Known about the structure:
With 127 residues, this protein is mainly α. The protein has 4 helices and no strands. The protein has one domain (22-126): 3 helical TM bundles of succinate and fumarate reductases (Up-down Bundle), CATH 1.20.1300.
Amino acid sequence: MADVNRGRRPLSPHLQVYNQSYTGTLSILHRVTGVALTLGAVLVIWWLVAAATGPAYFAFVDGLLTSLLGELILIGSALALSYHFANGIRHLVWDMGYGFELETVKKSGTAVIGFAVVLTLLIVVLA
């Protein structure tokens, strides 16, 4: 027999039902930065192919990557790399069985974000 109230209820959990947790957000950000790193690698490969192609094409690609938009993309790539690196270390610690207490998880997540920002600033300043 069909449920009479089914038409008024969502079929699966919905964004209005659940609040996104801090750790869930950091997990999604880890996946997003992984994809961003792949796109950044494509830019590096494009730059290397341009260097092998010839001076005119290399000047074009290098001009794009050193423009304001290119610099912002490279800074974003550095931030993605820094975050993904720091969060990867956090996951290695978890794989060893440490750091699963709720308070420790929140502190390590905040540390990952802080480390990523500081490392990105160092990369930008020293590069």
